[in-house]
Amino acid sequence: MQGSTRRMGVMTDVHRRFLQLLMTHGVLEEWDVKRLQRHCYKVHDRNATVDKLEDFINNINSVLESLYIEIKRGVTEDDGRPIYALVNLATTSISKMATDFAENELDLFRKALELIIDSETGFASSTNILNLVDQLKGKKMRKKEAEQVLQKFVQNKWLIEKEGEFTLHGRAILEMEQYIRETYPDAVKICNICHSLLIQGQSCETCGIRMHLPCVAKYFQSNAEPRCPHCNDYWPHEIPEVFDPEKQREAGISKSNKKSLRSRQH
Amino acid sequence: MLQTPESRGLPVPQAEGEKDGGHDGETRARTASQERPKEELGAGREEGAAEPALTRKGARALAAKALARRRACRRMNRTVAELVQFLLVKDKKKSPITRSEMVKYVIGDLKALFPDIIARAAEHLRYVFGFELKQFDRKHHTYILINKLKPLEEEEEEEDLGGDGPRLGLLMMILGLIYMRGNRAREAQVWEMLHRLGMQPSKYHFLFGYPKRLIMEDFVQQRYLSYRRVPHTSPPEYEFSWGPRSNLEISKMKVLGFVAKLHKKEPQHWPVQYREALADEADRARAKARAEASMRARASARAGIHLW
What is the CATH topology of the domain spanning A11-66? Predict the structure, then answer.
């Protein structure tokens, strides 16, 4: 906060509209962000050359710094798709959700979050979450109501649902990583490769280290004999492909990976 | 609702170029000027007593003051940032924000500095986001955000939904297919239609990403589509129907109109669907009338209170 010598970026209507739209959506995939950027140029500065996305975003972030927010890039945990969201840099808990949800709803989210973090697979079953409904702070909530609230979380992209189980949406991980690491320092899992928060991933059966699926993909890319980076034991899981937007991929690959991972859990 | 005389509370915005340095300078200058009179009064005696050269005690006191000032400055910056976020989030829900809410949730015991804080927040909102913070009700200190970016042309507006334009078109096609098939369509039929449009489920599309993911995950999870297993089918077959959100946000008549345009015919060309759409319109009109009546009743009750 002391007078920074770094030159701060300049905001024009192109950047402002981009920010407004990114805020409206909460989280966007990279190809969508690029379309958005081109759209903003088209509307406000038709003849200008479109900045490279990374520079464009860095420019905006340098302006956002004094507001303790930034446009953060992450990847989805299941198949490494790049996503972008506007996140809070100060650890003010689950503040962005706080205005959309009531006290008991926020507490339900917190309970689900804890179950997800504690789980081996990164997924918490609907049943287990709903069983905690009696322990919620605030107004009493019935199970039926809680089911609806969980769906609201899914619609607002805080949770993802797969076959009756819930995990964190990429957006929630981007927004809350710091909060989660500070609030649950013992339960939290970390990826051995990128050292970020890990909710879903693969683990070494010998030494227990974990890696994100996209990190596994990158680390073992074109490696015929994948071995654990920590204990050198043979890596027993299916190696996913590195995300390539140009290549045709089976969109359901995340499901098959999850099944192979879960079948090994006790 | 937006026509209010220019509020006197907001200062003239600073020149663009000196924004960063300007702000910090402004804060430091302001807090310094707030403190200087007190310092001169309080410390005057001390300084008079000690020699002009600083004693160790004097140096420590000055260092402590500088630290306190930096802390106050940081706290001020943080509060301004929190207020900006608070205003943005509140505005997203389209509810006007009152001064007391701001004090309660963000400003807290910095209440005395409210005019300064809100002025700085307003400047950030203007420069960074293109919103103007307008005091919409002077008596009750209520504020709203007005979008200062230029309004869009109609075709630009579709794009502006940030990807929702083409996606909405795809959704309309699927909703149309479902509607024309009697409110239910087998999964195979949906993919067949998309195939005819040149889309493959798992092939990356420059407008939609992966269509399969868009439909099966996004549309279903967002409740635009419902996806159910058809009972007594083996191997299991699945079907799509309108999800609850589609029922809320789009009408059958609109979808029928969309389909009709595609086929270059009139909606009446499909009498069964047309009758169904008319019934749907009647239901919606009735529901709307009921809602409006209750809103009017509430408004007149409130007006009645104000007259007193």
Answer: Aspartate Aminotransferase, domain 1 (3.90.1150)
Nearest by CB to A21, from B128, B162, B209: name it.
Answer: B162
Q: What is the mean pLDDT of residues A173-191?
A: 92
Size of the A and B interface in Cβ pairs below 8 Å: 118
Of B162, B202, B223, the CB nearest to A248: B202
Q: Which residues of B touch A11 (CB under 8 A)?
A: 127-128
* Distance (Å, whole) CA A15 – CA B17: 16
B292 touches chain A (CB under 8 A): no
Judge: A68–B81 Cβ closer than 8 Å, yes or no: yes
What is the CATH code of the structural domain delimited by B63-147?
A: 1.10.10.1200
Give the pLDDT confidence of A10-66 residue by residue, as tens digits: 899 999 999 998 988 889 999 889 988 998 998 888 888 888 999 999 999 999 999
Judged by CB atoms closer than 8 Å, whether chains meet at B89 and A96 is answered as yes
Inter-residue contact B179 to B256 (CB < 8 Å) = yes
pLDDT range class, residue B302, cuts 50, 70, 90: low
CB contact under 8 A, B202 and A67: no
Q: Are B63-147 and B161-250 equal in CATH topology?
A: yes
Contact yes or no for A23 and B88 at CB 8 A: yes
Q: What is the ipTM of this complex?
A: 0.80
* Nearest alpha-carbon partner for B127 in B218, B232, B275, B23: B23
Topology adopted by domain A188-244: Herpes Virus-1 (3.30.40)
Domain ranges of chain B: 63-147, 161-250, 253-307
Secondary structure letter of residue A100 according to DSSP: T
pTM of the shown model: 0.66
Any residues with CB less than 8 A from the CB of A197 and at least 6 apart, and which? A173, A177, A180, A181, A188, A189, A190, A191
What span, in angstroms and rounded, lies between the C-alpha atoms of A31 and A98? 29
Which residues of chain A form CATH 3.30.40.10?
188-244
Q: Which CATH superfamily is domain B161-250 in?
A: MAGE homology domain, winged helix WH2 motif (1.10.10.1210)
Q: Say whether B20 and A100 touch across the interface (CB within 8 A).
A: no
Query: Shortest Cα distance from A213 to chain B (angstroms)?
Result: 18
- Token output for A263: 């079948």
Nearest Cβ partner of B149 from A10, A17, A31? A17
Q: Which of A84-93, A193-202, B3-12, B247-256 has the lowest mean pLDDT?
A: B3-12
- pLDDT tens digits for B10-37? 333 333 333 333 344 334 434 444 444 4
Average of per-residue pLDDT values in chain B: 77
pLDDT average, residue stretch B74-83? 90
* Whether B244 contacts chain A with CB within 8 A: no
Q: Comparing C-alpha atoms, which of A70, A181, A156 is closest to residue A106?
A: A156
Q: Which of B74, B213, B223 sits opposite A155 (nearest CB)?
A: B223
Query: Mutating which of B105, B128, B238 best tests the A interface, going by the most A Cβ atoms within 10 A?
Result: B128
The per-residue DSSP string of A142-170 comes to -HHHHHHHHHHHHHTTSEEEETTEEEE-H
For domain A92-182, the CATH architecture is Orthogonal Bundle (1.10)
DSSP, collapsed to helix, strand or coil, labels residue B277 as: helix
Task: List, by residue range, all CATH 1.10.10.10 domains of chain A.
Answer: 92-182
- Interface test with chain B among A18, A45, A67, A81, by most B beta carbons within 10 Å: A67
